[in-house]
Amino acid sequence: MAHALEPKAKTLAEAGTDAPYGVIGDLDPRLRVVLACVFAITTVALTTIPALIAALATAVSLLMMSRLPIRRTLKRMAMMDSFIIFMLVLLPFTMPGEPMFSVFGFPASWQGLWKAIEIGLTANAVILTLMVLVGTMEPVTLGHALHKLRCPEVLVHLLMFTIRYIEVLREEYLRLRGAMKIRGFRPGTNWHTYRSFGYLVGMMLVRAIERSERILGAMKCRGFSGQLILLQEFRMTRRDHRFAVLLGGVCIGLLFLDHL
Q1: Cβ atoms < 10 Å from Cβ of 244
Q2: How confident is the model at residue 46 (pLDDT cuts 50, 70, 90)?
Q3: Which tens digit of pLDDT belongs to each residue from 119-142?
Q4: Mapping DSSP to helix (H, G, I), strand (E, B) and coil, where does residue 7 land?
Q5: Which of 8, 51, 207, 259 is the most buried (most CB within 10 A)?
Q6: Is 236 helix (H, G, I), strand (E, B) or coil?
Q7: In a 3-state reduction of DSSP, which class is residue 221?
Q8: Which residues neighbour 208 within 8 Å (Cβ) at sequence distance 6 or greater?
């Protein structure tokens, strides 16, 4: 199965290089997944602005240690922020409290503003940490790490196949859209357009089912029995233990700072 997923494998961050990502790239993948979860839980539990700023600073420090391209990484974070920006803008107007100003008779409260800042800092700190610790792993490595952490094999299989074949389905979609354009299809706000897109979605589902059956047959011919075959064994080193102690101490410090 691993060989079936290896071709065209890229890191989840799509940084375009096979070299380890600094200190982060040399860490045990299992440790990176666990630490990412621990840091995310700790950050979500924080309630004060200074503690959240410190958490974001910690995430930025991890980014510097990983040697990821800063500009590209920040662009990806900006894409995430675009999904919550409307919620953050409207939050001061929907949360009761001491008014700052009003727009068309709708008062904006200070409490809502601070809550919006808190949510923004939390989201950016968590996402940036996940991008650094988990996003720099290859999909196969991530799947093996989750398997070693006793995650259900079915979920691991779904994750690995989704990452591997999402681009295949995208290419299939582009081929179908190209065929529609060649036949003179131009989208509009009419029933013909809605019906055509419905046919497109249906054909995508049919072809996805057919492809999945072919893949399953090919895997069975190669002896796949429903279990992950690991090509490498993970081992904890002194560097892993030191990094775990360091980041664990940072999480404890953030909780202590939050209660000051």
Answers
A1: 18
A2: very high
A3: 999 999 999 999 999 988 888 888
A4: coil
A5: 51
A6: coil
A7: helix
A8: 169, 172
